[in-house]
Amino acid sequence: MMQRFLLIVESFLSIARKNHHMSKSNTAFVVTSPRISLELSLLGEITAVVLGERKIRRNLTGLTCLAAEEGTRNVTSRVLSNGGVEFQRILTVENHECELTERFTPTETSIRWEIEIQGLAAPWSTAVCTRLTWPDANNAKFWTTWGDRRYSRAFPDKQSADLSWDDPLQAEPFREYELTYGGHCYTAGGFAIPIATVMEESRDLGFSLVLSPEDTLLGMRLFVDESGRIEFSRHHHRISREHPVRFTMDLTTHEADWRPGLAWTVERYPQFFQPVNPKTYDIAGCGAYSTYEGPLEAEKLKSMGFHVNWKASFDFPYMGMFLPPTQSDDEEWKSFQGRFTSISHLREYSRKMKEMGFDVFNYFNTTEFGTEIQFPPADDVLQPDADSDPNLWNDPNAFLYNRLADAILYGTNDHMFVSWRHCAVLDPGEPVYQEYLLAQARRHIEKFPDSRGIAIDRLDWLLKFNRRRDDGVSWVSRDTNDPAVHEHAIGEDVELADSPVRDGHPARSVMLGWLALMRKLGPLMHDAGKVIYCNPHTKRPEMMEHIDGIFDEMGHYGFNLNLSSFLGLYKPVICWADENKDILQSPEAFFQRHLYMGAFPMAPFPGNDHSVRPGEEVERYFLDYGPMLNALRGRKWILQPHVIEVKDNLAKANVFTVPDGLIIPVMFGGECDRVEILLWNFRNVFPSQECNFDVILPGEDTWVSLDGRQTEEGILLDVPLRKGCAMVRCFN
User: Fold this and answer.
1) For residue range 170-199, what is the model confidence (pLDDT) as tens digits?
2) How many domains does the chain have?
3) What percent of the chain has pLDDT over 70?
4) Is a pLDDT exceeding 80 seen at residue 6?
5) Which value, in Å, is the radius of gyration of the alpha carbons in the chain?
6) Range of the domain at 452
7) Of 219, 202, 159, 283, which Cα lies nearest the Cα of 501?
């Protein structure tokens, strides 16, 4: 009876609002912006969308729902003064109720969709879902910022992970996907930027749903299937009276290309994509991870594209005590590697590297501390005079349990999380640990004037929750954290049950604690002219607000290369190069996928830790591709629609801006010795009236002039290839 009554009311209001009626009987409201209009039912559900200047209408459906939702009541709606519409309703899930408020408002380029959920009784949690269904999915394709289009689930362990690379810039027919936001370093089924794009290529019609990275996003999955369903499912959010859960999204339209939806995202949220310190572009290049301090063949390394060493994590006495409080800069300590070093020695290393034209990052870690940490602690580890003991730092167990114990991260059964060499995992959201880390950063700034900055390791622990603290927004089950206590106790371990969290309790997201730390650490380093790079074992744009570049330890996995490249659209990306044998199995593919994605590999550097080492055979390939790698320095992705095309799809091509023009990697041409490249809308990308082109091939060190022919569509280039590869430059 209630459903029949609502249908009668909806029909009456549709007639009363006939100026909003668009021929579909359940459409009660229309929200219109310059490029997109959204039709909505009386219940607040999306019933259709009208796209672009051609006013192409699609019977898109969409709604907000909760997992295991059982009913809706007290639906109200009102038209807003800004041309938007607001809906309110009460939702029931088992024995829980909440009030859902949704607003659809026009902007210059989108329809903004805002969600607010407020509990009506005791706190609880369930999945909050945003669901769209694209009509006639058989004639459309789907795209997101995926690491690998071929996979959708986590690999059980790193040994079974597929190292091969898959082109992430291709849209796919709708089929079943289950992708994790941010992924994980061993997980192919991840996506980096929260966007879902639909393309109808025959109509050059594109549509994107973009979730705001400004939101608090704890755990999230993206589901897609062959029916055209697209669903973002958010987890671990506390539904309570005190702290409403809020999410913001935008619906926008564009051409049938992955670039413009991504461009909209970058323009709307530049703080997550633009580096704070532009000096990062001067540092960009192939990297190393080494403690080696001996003589170098500087010119040879430069020819291979090398530019920066992340000083490997062995100079400190133990993890987390990066610069101990010695009495003088010349006082030595025994390093993690068993050698003696000092602050003055490390300072001199950075100065010498700078003189050779290279840069140095110092190692930093915000989640791991100590070595051979005992759990539970020994009876005599607690010391009454620990706060005033200047030598407490010599004992990692004593320092941890007397100074930083409040930051220890525990799993279920009150086991401490530990990592490599049995160091403790700490929560960077804990004030005492935050202040300790900031003090360490201040010492870096003071003691290492010639160091470019820090690179932060091991961000995989950010996916955990501190069950002994309360951030006011998280709500987790008893088993949310893996109970294991070794370094493989990592990953999100999201509970995906279609029912509320029955045994839930408050917690603090380690991710949110880390973001709070970075709001202090970022300005501290940047105000001193330093840069911050990170090793993002999970990859989300909200993590990148204070990060200037990426050094991905797992970048030799193809999906990590892709995810990091999406995060680094306008920031340098350096990806791990694993052992020499892994590169030499398919060297051309190795270099060409990095160039195509605008990423730098590591270079064969003396002393590289668990990565590529010098050797005649591997160095030959780095020398062959070195000029191309050097040409990438300072690159930024071009995100204009249909900017480049390879005729007959005989190769792959991408295009980037660089400080003096454009750079165009043409890759994976197989046996072809020439391909034709068309630069569409060329003047929109390179507005100068005078431009020149040249090209370089693998194994050459000289750029050769290349003619460009103007056509109605753009500039046509006839590009020679060697090993299926070439690099083209455009310059004044």
Assistant:
1) 999 999 999 999 998 887 889 999 999 999
2) 3
3) 91
4) no
5) 27
6) 280-576
7) 219
pLDDT digits (tens, 9 = 90+) for 642-654: 999 999 999 999 9
Over residues 714-731, mean pLDDT: 96
Assign 3-state DSSP to the chain and report helix, strand, coil percentages, each to 5: 25, 30, 45
Cα three-residue angle 624-629-633, rounded to 5 degrees: 160
584 within a domain of the structure (yes/no): no
Q: Are residues 470 and 339 located together in one domain of the fold?
A: yes
In this structure, the chain runs to a length of 732
Report the C-alpha gap between 311 and 318 in whole angstroms: 15
Write phi, then psi, for 535 (nearest 5 degrees).
-105, 90
- Which residues in 120-228 belong to E strands, given as ranges? 128-133, 141-143, 172-173, 177-181, 190-191, 195-200, 205-211, 219-224
- Helix spans in 422-557 (H): 431-447, 510-527
Please report, in angstroms and rounded to a whole number, the separation of the first and last CA atoms in the chain.
73
464 residue type, one letter: K
Query: What's the CA gap between 473 and 264, in Å, rounded?
Result: 29
Helices (H), 140-268: 258-268
- Report how far residue 181's alpha carbon sits from residue 661's, in angstroms, rounded to the nearest whole number: 34
- CA atoms in the 13 A half-sphere facing the CB of 338: 0
pLDDT of residue 11: 37
What is the rounded CA–CA span in Å between residue 451 and residue 349?
9
Angle, helix 616-631 to helix 587-597, in steps of 10 degrees: 20
C-alpha separations of 646 from 200, 667, 680, 719 in Å = 20, 10, 11, 10
- Encode 550-581: b = buried (16+ Cβ within 10 Å), e = exposed: bbbbbbbbbbbbbbbbbbbbbbbbbbbbbebe
Asked which of 21-30, 379-388, 666-675 is least confident by mean pLDDT, the reply is 21-30
Looking at the domain assignment, is residue 104 inside a domain? yes
Claim to verify: residue 260 and residue 356 sit in the same structural domain: no
Report the relative pairing of strands 656-658 and 726-731 from DSSP bridges: unpaired
Reported pTM: 0.93
Write down the number of H helices and E strands in the chain: 13, 45
pLDDT-derived band at 151 (thresholds 50, 70, 90) equals confident
Of 493, 498, 531, 537, give the one whose Cα is nearest residue 514.
537
Any domain includes 515:
yes
What pairing do the DSSP bridges indicate for beta strands 549-552 and 531-534? parallel
**Among 194-198, 250-254, 554-558, 625-629, which stretch is predicted with the lowest mean pLDDT?**
554-558
Do 97 and 106 meet the contact criterion of CB atoms below 8 Å apart? no
Q: 242 pLDDT exceeds 70?
A: yes
Give the per-residue pLDDT at 499: 56
Q: Is a pLDDT exceeding 90 seen at residue 5?
A: no
In single-letter form, the type of residue at position 541 comes to P
Q: What six digits make up the tokens of 35?
A: 């490029």
* Domain boundary, last residue among 218, 245, 268: 268
Q: Give yes or no for a contact between 596 and 652, defined as CB atoms under 8 angstroms apart.
A: yes
Preceding omega of 572 cis (within 30 degrees of 0): no
